[in-house]
Each structure stands twice: as C-alpha cells, then as structure tokens.
Amino acid sequence: DARISLQGFPVAEARALLAFCQAEMARLEAVFSLHDPASALSRLNREGRLDAAPAGMLELIGISRRIHALSGGAFDPSVQPLWDLYAAHFRDRTAGSAGPSAAAIEAARARVGFGRVAVAGRSIALAPGMSLTLNGIAQGYITDRVADILRAAGARHVLVDLGEFRALGPKLDGHPWRIGLRDAVRPLHLANAVPLSGRALATSGGYGTPFDASGRHHHLFDPRTGRSAGRHLSASVVAPAATEADALSTAFYVMDRPSIVAVLKEMPEIGVRLVGLDGAVFLAGAWPVAPSPA
C-alpha cells in the first residue's frame, strides 16, 4: 500500500499534489508491471524487443547495469525465468518439496544474464528465451519520482512509503522520521526503528515472497546458482535515493559479507544492516547510529 506523509503544506494544495503523485505512480506502474500484459515490460518480455521504449525504462535499465556491475552480477533483473520455473513448480501440488530439478534450474539459468540485454538508442532487445523483472528496483524508482514531484512543489517535510521509504528532510518538528524494521527472525514483529531524514531505506528478505511453507524457496535468487539465496535473513540499506537502496538491498541479500563491504568502500554514502541466519545483526557503512527500539 502507498502512503505519503506530507507536513507543513496547505491542505488544498496538498490534496492536488497527492493526486498528481497518484497519477504518476499509475503511469509508471503501466511501464514496469509484470501483471499488465499491455505494460512496456510485458511487451518486451513477450516480443523480445521494445522499440521507442519509455524514458523511465531506459533510465532504469541503465541504473540496473551499474548496480549489476557493482555487485558482481548479484543484482540481475534477468532472473525472471527462474521465478517462472519456481512458481510453476510449487503451483503443482504433486511436485516435490525439494524444488525444481537441477536440470530444470540449469535450463532456466541458461536464459539468465543481464549482460545480454542490448540497448541501442530507444530500443531494448533480449537474447532468445530471456525475460526481465524490475521488481527489485522499480518500486524504489517510483518512490524517487514521487519524491521529486513533491520536492519540486516546495515540500520539505515528506515521507514517501511505497514499500521502500524516501524522506525529504525531517518531520515538521525537526525530528527524523522513524521507520520500523521488520524482525527477520519473527517477521510479524518489529525489531528496530530507524531514524530517517533526507535519505531512503529499503529491506529485502526471503520471507517477503516464499514459494513454499518452509520459506526455503523464495523470490530472491542467486543468479550464479539458480537457487534462492540463503546467506542472510534480511538485508536493509540506507542510501541517498530509494532506487539505489532498493536494488542494493536485493543485491546484498545475495552477496557474502566481504563482497558487501567491498561495495561499501566504493559507495561511502551507503549503509547496510544484515541479519544473519543465526539472528545476529551486522551494521556497516553509513547506517544510522544506534537505532532505537520501536
């Protein structure tokens, strides 16, 4: 659910501004949706090519290339064939709980590889059998676009919550916004409240979209193995923008700790909070100091 907290703005102007934001959200959803067969992304996946691609999609493909390279391929929007494979497997009630066969995984993984996405001008082309999902970055991108609209209108005390968070400045009283983090060990509870002002926050965890009751098989795939990643229970990222926070939380969930620390050295403005399989918390980079209990 979308929620925008806008403080210190005249009510009538705020209503008109929020309506404009809702229209922009709907417009971008029509570009990035996997569920709408008429969306630009659905047409690209169906036809393998998209000419006159929307500017937002071209921009997001470009940002995805940067995060893909920075993460050593851990962030890869071309994992959609793996998602399709696992979803089909677990829809079949007679299928085994161990997941798809190794042969089926390798066949799907052969169609994964973001480096094979070609962009020329406003045209995007996929290698045969490929398909993309932008679910690991598009929500953050839409969050940023909404924040851009609000900032251009003069809003200075805003929290945009579209699943990823973006704060424009503090609250009207000068205090930072406080964002509750889901407890990765007990996902129905909150673990901490993170202070946020002028930054963005995103969290990825396998508990978000499990394919099976155990949660061992979920939507966050390691493109190198074709299997659901299992290094951490959750990865949270603070960043200047929600697009990067969204993509990096997806990547960091897949990556090991030394690789994450190496990325943080290249991006000192980024902070990360990892919850290990044993429930231990690891903080690094520009993570907000000493988050208070919720």
Keywords:
single chain, 7-stranded antiparallel sheet, 294 residues, alpha+beta, 21% strand, 8 helices, 3-stranded antiparallel sheet, 14 strands
Please provide a written account of the structure:
The protein has 294 residues and is α+β, with helices and mostly antiparallel strands. Among the domains are: 41-125, ApbE-like superfamily (T-fold, Orthogonal Bundle), CATH 1.10.3980; 167-285, T-fold. It is built from 8 helices and 14 strands. The chain has a 7-stranded antiparallel beta sheet with strand order 1-5-6-9-12-13-14. It is globular, with a radius of gyration of 19 Å. The mean pLDDT is 93.
CATH structural class of the domain at 167-285: Alpha Beta
Instruction: Give helix and strand order, one letter per element, not per position.
Output: EHHEHHHEEHEEEEEEEEHHEE
| End-to-end Cα distance | 21 Å
Our Rg estimate from Cα atoms comes to 19 Å
- The CATH topology assignment of the domain at 167-285 is T-fold
**CATH architectural grouping of the domain at 167-285:** Roll
Shape: globular
The side-by-side strand order for the widest beta sheet comes to: 1-5-6-9-12-13-14
Mean pLDDT: 93
Which structural class do the helices and strands define? alpha+beta
